[in-house]
Design a protein that fits this description.
The complex is a heterodimer of chains A (113) and B (114). Chain A is an all-beta fold and 113 residues long. In chain A, 0% of the residues lie in helices and 53% in strands. In chain A, strands 2, 5, 6, 10, 11 and 12 form a six-stranded mixed β-sheet that branches. Chain A is globular, with a radius of gyration of 13 Å. The mean pLDDT of chain B is 93. Classes of the chains: A mainly beta (113), B mainly beta (114).
């Protein structure tokens, strides 16, 4: 079964410093992978997706992620954190049963002034 | 283009009651899926509908059910509510065209069971 593991439940960075949110996946085939963000009391917003095209995926708001098959990783990065980036981030893999998404437990990103 | 709309945004129900949540997908999207989000279990898939047919169901008891109408709007129903059903219920729609399209989520319905 397809699954993802987010390696950090909480990450704290200073405004203006790089962001790294780590995600490893488990899949029997080349999966579709996504990163979603959830701001407090809001729904989920898609940041970016990987669907077997380019391994470096650029998303919205300056985020990007690199698919590394050899390491089964799909880490999310941003060169410079902004206060508005503070939110919960979810790494997501498409389920092999079809038409469903399997979510990681989430990483809470705190950005300090 | 309007996003995914879920109603109501907040609900308070008593144990044993039943509840119906509604979801209007993005115009043109024919796939609607539902997820439950709780602090303990995170985000879990409930079910997915396409053209009024359930194509996939998550590991939830039969008290959780859903349906989709011909205009792609969807409802989910929870009967005999339990305290543990308190959660944020999220609906997502997808165009179901092209390779592995992403899901677009609504803001959710916050259900509190007392």
């Amino acid at each position: 079964a397809q699954s993802v593991t987010q390696l950090d439940s909480h990450v704290s960075v200073s405004e203006g410093t790089p962001v790294l949110l780590r995600c490893n996946y488990s899949s029997s085939y080349s999966p579709s992978l996504f990163w979603y963000v959830q701001h407090p009391n809001k729904g989920l917003q898609l940041l970016l997706k990987y669907t077997s095209a380019a391994t470096l995926v650029k998303g919205i708001n300056g985020f990007e992620a690199e698919f590394k098959k050899s390491e089964t990783s799909f880490h999310l990065t941003k060169p410079s954190a902004h206060m508005s980036d503070a939110a919960e981030y979810f790494c997501v893999v498409e389920s092999n049963s079809g038409y469903a998404l399997n979510f990681g437990k989430g990483t809470s990103l705190l950005v300090t002034p | 283009k309007a996003g995914v709309t879920q109603t109501p945004r907040y609900l308070i129900k008593t144990r044993g009651q039943q509840v119906t949540l509604s979801c209007s997908p993005i115009s043109g999207h024919r796939s609607v899926s539902w997820y439950q989000q709780t602090p303990g279990q995170g985000l879990q898939f409930l079910f997915e509908y396409f053209s009024e047919t359930q194509r996939n169901k998550g590991n939830f008891p039969g008290r959780f059910s859903g349906r989709q109408f011909s205009n792609s709007r969807s409802e989910m129903n929870v009967s005999t509510l339990e305290l543990g059903d308190s959660a944020l219920y999220l609906c997502a729609s997808s165009p179901n065209t092209g390779e592995r399209p992403e899901a677009f989520f609504g803001q959710g319905t916050r259900l509190t069971v007392v």
